[in-house]
């Protein structure tokens, strides 16, 4: 019996038609796209789970804010509203808008890193790793061992491995560790949360060695919800109270606001109280993103973001939001489809390594399953595995990611229970013929972030 679906805490005011292609049409479309899900036209996708970034449905209040947008180049009203909203949640003095999360990384990483430096993280996501390497540094992942076993139920699989982290600091020298990054929730580990205790202890070790702590805050509200539900001492605290404590243990954050702030475009940088650091942030923002009071965003986007930040920490919304993951997870468990357990905050991460054991990591099982899911039912997803992680920046050799996930990222306030049932039924159907799913090889790839534009073909 599947988990009871937690009904949407909103009503639907507008609908958008979506296409249902035939089997033959889908086969033609994916071949034309060189078997790259990012290269598909959205009109050829039935249920789009490629990402939860910028794909959510904005509220009536956000759309009203868009109409009120002040498009002044400098000192716009939306900028002031955004700063006030962000300060209220994060407790940071300095707030800088940018157009999205990777823009925040582009601004911040060159300030903290350079050649010979290292960034340690519970796990770097793809754009974070890329910006670490673009700055001339190297990325070191440090997630707890519990995350590596997708079958075990551990409440905080996103945690930093504290012992390993301190060992890496000693090995490379504290003076060479430019930043410690805490990604909440931990996307690459399966959308898994990080406990408050682990964040606190990570901060203590960083302070001991004089290293800056940065929170990658894309899904901070979901992480706060998990802390409230799973960690002793937080059940009676509000999401905002939990978030404020979480950010108190870091000096700076970067955020793709296209996730937990439920906007189609936007990002943030926050600096707790270091005015010199913030001056460097502003100095990079102006040439990269535009003047500091708009940071690459239209005034209407600033208004929508200011409102979305507050909507994203609503408890009932988060209960429904994460309830969708739990419902889909139960359906998949009943059907024998393996995934990272427990369910993550923004996505279900199907364990393609277990589902497709005949494929090696260099045959990209996570990507192979994503292609098969599109062919089966017009559902677009993506690989979080060896295809995404790419090649060693020094040797050029294909890296073994360890995880081989197919990520089903659920957009916020977009799909219903019936859509999730279609996804579950399609994956269960694929499971029954899993040994027939082919691996893939890359026939062309760019040097950086290859999975966005690479061309592939099935291995015969």
Task: Kindly describe this structure.
The longest helix has 20 residues. Helices cover 40% and strands 13% of the residues. The mean pLDDT is 96. The protein starts with 22 loop residues before the first helix and ends with a strand. It has two domains: 172 residues, Aspartate Aminotransferase, domain 1; 252 residues, Aspartate Aminotransferase, domain 2 (3-Layer(aba) Sandwich). The strands form four sheets. It has a seven-stranded mixed beta sheet, sandwiched between helices. Strands 9-12-11 form a three-stranded antiparallel beta sheet. Strands 1-10 form a two-stranded parallel sheet. The protein has 16 helices and 14 strands. Strand 5, helix 7 and strand 6 form a beta-alpha-beta unit. It is globular, with a radius of gyration of 21 Å. The chain is α/β, with parallel strands linked by helices and 460 residues long.
Helix content: 25-40%
What coarse outline follows from CA principal-axis ratios? globular
Which structural class matches the secondary elements? alpha/beta
Largest sheet: 7 strands, mixed
pLDDT averaged residue by residue: 96
Q: Which second-level CATH architecture of the largest domain applies?
A: 3-Layer(aba) Sandwich
């Amino acid at each position: 019996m599947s988990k009871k679906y937690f009904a949407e805490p909103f009503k639907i005011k507008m609908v958008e038609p979506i296409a249902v292609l035939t089997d033959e049409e889908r086969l033609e479309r994916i071949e034309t796209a060189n078997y790259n899900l990012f290269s598909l036209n959205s009109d050829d996708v039935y249920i789009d789970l490629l990402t939860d970034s910028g794909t959510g449905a904005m509220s009536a209040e956000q759309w009203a804010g868009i109409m009120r947008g002040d498009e002044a180049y400098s000192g716009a009203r939306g900028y002031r509203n955004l700063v006030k909203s962000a300060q209220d949640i994060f407790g940071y003095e300095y707030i800088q808008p940018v157009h999205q999360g990777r823009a925040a990384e582009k601004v911040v990483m060159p300030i903290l890193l350079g050649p010979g430096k290292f960034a340690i993280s519970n796990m770097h996501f793809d754009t974070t790793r890329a910006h670490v390497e673009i700055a001339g540094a190297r990325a070191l992942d440090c997630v707890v061992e519990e995350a590596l076993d997708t079958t075990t139920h551990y409440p905080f699989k996103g945690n930093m491995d504290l012992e390993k982290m301190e060992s890496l600091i000693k090995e490379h020298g504290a003076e060479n560790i430019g930043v410690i990054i805490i990604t909440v929730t931990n996307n690459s580990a399966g959308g898994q949360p990080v406990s408050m205790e682990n964040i606190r202890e990570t901060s203590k070790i960083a302070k001991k060695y004089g290293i800056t702590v940065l929170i990658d805050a894309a899904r901070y509200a979901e992480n706060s919800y998990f802390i409230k539900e799973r960690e002793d001492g937080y059940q009676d605290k509000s999401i905002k109270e939990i978030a404020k404590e979480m950010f108190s243990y870091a000096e700076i954050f970067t955020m793709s606001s296209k996730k937990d702030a439920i906007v189609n475009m936007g990002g943030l940088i926050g600096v707790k109280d270091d005015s010199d650091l913030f001056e460097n942030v502003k100095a990079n923002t102006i040439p990269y993103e535009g003047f500091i009071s708009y940071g690459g965003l239209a005034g209407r986007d600033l208004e929508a973001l200011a409102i979305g930040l507050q909507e994203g920490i609503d408890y009932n919304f988060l209960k429904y939001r994460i309830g969708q993951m739990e419902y889909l997870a139960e359906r998949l468990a009943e059907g024998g489809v393996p995934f990272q357990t427990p369910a993550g905050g923004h996505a279900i991460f199907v364990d393609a390594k277990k589902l497709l054991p005949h494929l090696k990591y260099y045959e990209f099982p996570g990507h192979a399953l994503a292609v098969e899911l599109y062919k089966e039912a017009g559902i677009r997803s993506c690989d979080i595995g060896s295809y995404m992680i790419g090649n060693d920046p020094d040797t050029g050799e294909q890296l073994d990611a360890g995880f081989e996930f197919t990520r089903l990222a659920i957009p916020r306030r977009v799909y219903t229970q019936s859509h999730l049932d279609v996804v579950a039924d399609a994956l269960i159907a694929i499971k029954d013929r899993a040994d027939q799913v082919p691996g893939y090889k890359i026939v062309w790839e760019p040097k950086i972030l290859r999975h966005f534009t690479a061309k592939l073909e099935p291995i015969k």
